[in-house]
Specification:
This protein is of the alpha/beta class. The chain folds into 2 domains: 149 residues, Ribonuclease H-like superfamily/Ribonuclease H (Nucleotidyltransferase, domain 5, 2-Layer Sandwich); 44 residues, no CATH class. Helix content is 40%, strand content 14%. The chain has 8 helices and 5 strands, in the order ββααβααββαααα. The chain has a 5-stranded mixed sheet with strand order 3-2-1-4-5. A hairpin with an 8-residue loop joins β1 and β2. The radius of gyration is 18 Å and the shape is globular.
């Protein structure tokens, strides 16, 4: 990984990433992480990289390591209602902004995964396509966001056991689609997303675990 943090003159650089944009169920989650410059090589040696390239067990191990060494980190979310009202892109950008402004320390620069800048952010920012592979801070943010959202999906799986959320984390797997066909949608499903949209007007009752 060639990290942009090594060549950027600013000292306080926040990596920002999202998880859950493509899911049918649940919030979209973002994280912002500021790593100390003198620890970037150490973070690389830990094997911090794009969360999608790590096992769930490895991500769980890395979370406390990232949190222990980070100058600052924060989670931001956008609700299902915001996703349905605004669209997933705008909701994701809002969640990214929430992650940044919730940091206890204001960064001097934000490295944002993707090609869309965050609107109305009063902090310099730089977008990076495939940022998880180009910035160790973005990769760290992707891990924190992924683990946070996965834990939430497992918790919600106890409330909606018929959807088996622990297995697919709300994404549109064949099993999840079959459950939607059988049980309809829940308040946590994104009604603006197909195939949830076709069930939104005919919202049949679904069993909820007490």
């Amino acid at each position: 990984m060639t990290s942009h943090e090594f060549t950027c003159p600013e000292n306080l650089i926040a990596g920002v990433d999202e998880v859950g944009r493509g899911a049918l169920f649940g919030v979209v989650v973002t994280a912002a992480v500021i790593l100390p410059k003198n620890a970037l090589i150490e973070c690389q040696n830990w094997g911090i990289k794009d969360s999608k390239k790590l096992s769930a067990r490895r991500r769980e191990i890395l979370v406390p390591q990232i949190q222990s060494i980070a100058i600052g980190y924060n989670i931001g979310i956008a609700t299902v209602a915001e996703i349905d009202e605004l669209n997933i892109l705008q909701a994701t950008l809002i969640a990214m902004k929430r992650a940044i402004i919730g940091l206890e320390i204001t960064p001097q620069l934000c490295l944002v995964d993707g090609n869309k800048p965050i609107p109305n952010l009063d902090i310099p920012q730089q977008t990076l396509v495939k940022g998880e592979d180009r910035s160790i801070s973005i990769a760290a943010a992707s891990i924190l966001a992924k683990v946070w959202r996965d834990r939430l999906m497992i918790e919600l799986g106890d409330i909606y056991p018929q959807y088996h959320l622990a297995n697919h984390k709300g994404y549109g797997t064949a099993a999840h689609l079959m459950a939607i066909e059988k049980y309809g949608i829940t308040p946590e499903h994104r009604q603006s997303f197909s195939p949830c949209r076709q069930h939104s007007e005919d919202h049949t009752p679904f069993p909820v675990k007490n």
